[in-house]
Amino acid sequence: MLIPAHHFRDIERKPEYLQPEKCIPPPHPRPAGTMWFIRDGCGIACAIVTWFLVLYAEFVVLFVMLIPSRDYVYSVINGLVFNLLAFLALASHCRAMLTDPGAVPKGNATKEFIESLQLKPGQVVYKCPKCCSIKPDRAHHCSVCKRCIRKMDHHCPWVNNCVGENNQKYFVLFTMYIALISLHALIMVGFHFLHCFEEDWTKCSSFSPPTTVILLILLCFEGLLFLIFTSVMFGTQVHSICTDETGIEQLKKEERRWAKKTKWMNMKAVFGHPFSLGWASPFATPDQGKADPYQYVV
Known about the structure:
Layout: H1 5-13, H2 41-66, H3 72-98, H4 111-116, E1 126-128, E2 133-135, E3 139-142, E4 147-150, E5 154-156, E6 161-163, H5 168-198, H6 209-243, H7 247-252, H8 263-271
Antiparallel strand pairs: 1-2, 3-4, 5-6
């Protein structure tokens, strides 16, 4: 018989399941300021492939289409736009990969810590039996990161990290900029094919005609694939932010226990207060104003 998803959270609410005597703090806690990086073979491979594909697109755009072009204004403008978007995409990827997504302190479900909370009668706390952490509401455990993540949306192998409270902005920017450079590359490939059909193929590229065609077809296939994929991811992420409901919460159909806010307030909670050009910058850390500290007790 299937057990409803909410049943597991009811178990976590019961004090007898805390078993603080079985929780030992980690022997070597991560020092403050240490770079966050997940040592997962699949995630690292996916991150490397991501960079390779962007650099491949960069190579084809520059050395097959723009540099051989005799229209210098066209080449300069499109080169600047494409390189700027590619740089922002890779910068967003780095920030999404190397930013702590909102990991809950590991191994803090000790007897001393629980006593320090000074729980009153009727108050309950959440405990993760996997990483032995007292966690706030809306936190979920990631089996890849081996940590509980606040407002975890999902674990993305392409950025080798969870998408959570602290790095969702960078993941959204990453999907947006990848979609934009994919669209830009497809448009330039279309114009280049038209130009080469009208002109001599030997004059429209520094490579041989067969090599040029193969490189452009591969770029077209890559651009179309990633345009569709990242556009869908961007749309789902924006919808998730506006509704203030993570992907896991939607999948598990969890009961809403948090205050409902407007869509604009939800956007500012992720991208920062107030609205500015920093929303589009992967180098601007979101200023979320006076955020309420997450509560261990309910």
